[in-house]
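Below is a filled-in request sheet from our internal design queue. Each sheet records the structural input a requester submitted and the sequence that came back. We keep these sheets so that new team members can see what a complete request looks like end to end.

REQUESTER: design group, bay 2
PRIORITY: normal
MODE: inverse folding
CHAIN LENGTH: 250
BACKBONE (tokenized):
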């Protein structure tokens, strides 16, 4: 048996040739590009160079575009830009008083829809506001019903239980708006505006009632509140701010 630690004299292997062949194969492998797994190939530096050149060129083009971002140069012909007297926003444009009060009053009346209904007729279970004598009559009487609630018979003599007071947290603006809305909706055509001044007077009267904190009744309404609220009348066509309802000068 041949000793593994001694060379095989009969082996015809040429060590020099094998070594040279190994070097040639290694050189050939080194010349080949390495194949990476999908998505792991390095990004060529030329990509970054090309992208940078394009970005610089685009910036220069936009900077020399003249009126590209100029409003007066690019605005469509015939379009008029609204000009303000000052640098502050002037808010929504003024509208007729009756229209403004009605719009605000409609929002406040949404709290009353559950009983009186969207048509104001009450569905038979609650008093109708359509053509109501108290809604269309003296404004002080109507305001007392809204602010304090009602017990006992209504203007028709029919009872519907106790109406809860609506005056808690109600501002003069809210009261004026909802009164104006009811008196000009559901077929009612009073054509008048219950002003904020009138509504403020109504709140003062309500707070000075002898039975303050309790619902009004027909007897009290007829004896103490059968008149219109004090305050200067407002022409329904007067221009007012649609938010504050304050008259504005045009």
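RETURNED SEQUENCE:
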């Amino acid at each position: 048996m041949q000793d593994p630690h001694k060379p095989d004299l009969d082996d015809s292997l040429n060590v020099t040739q094998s070594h040279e062949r190994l070097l040639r194969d290694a050189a050939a492998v080194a010349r080949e590009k390495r194949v990476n797994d999908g998505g792991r190939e390095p990004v060529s530096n030329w990509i970054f160079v090309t992208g940078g050149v394009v970005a610089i060129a685009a910036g220069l083009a936009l900077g020399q575009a003249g009126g590209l971002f100029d409003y007066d140069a690019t605005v469509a012909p015939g379009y008029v830009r609204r000009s303000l007297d000052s640098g502050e926003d002037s808010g929504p444009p003024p509208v007729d008083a009756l229209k403004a009060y009605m719009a605000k009053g409609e929002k406040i009346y949404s709290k009353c829809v559950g009983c009186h209904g969207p048509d104001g007729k009450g569905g038979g279970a609650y008093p109708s506001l359509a053509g109501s004598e108290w809604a269309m009559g003296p404004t002080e009487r109507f305001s007392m019903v809204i602010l304090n609630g009602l017990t006992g018979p209504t203007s028709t003599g029919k009872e519907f239980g106790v109406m809860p007071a609506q005056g808690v947290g109600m501002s003069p603006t809210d009261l004026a708006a909802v009164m104006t809305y009811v008196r000009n909706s559901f077929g009612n055509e009073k054509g008048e505006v219950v002003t904020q001044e009138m509504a403020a007077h109504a709140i003062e009267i309500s707070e000075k009632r002898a039975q303050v904190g309790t619902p009004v009744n027909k007897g009290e309404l007829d004896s103490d509140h059968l008149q219109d609220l004090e305050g200067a009348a407002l022409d329904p066509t007067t221009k007012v701010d649609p938010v504050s309802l304050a008259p504005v000068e045009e």
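SHEET NOTES:
- The longest strand covers residues 95-96.
- The mean pLDDT is 85.
FILED BY: M.R.
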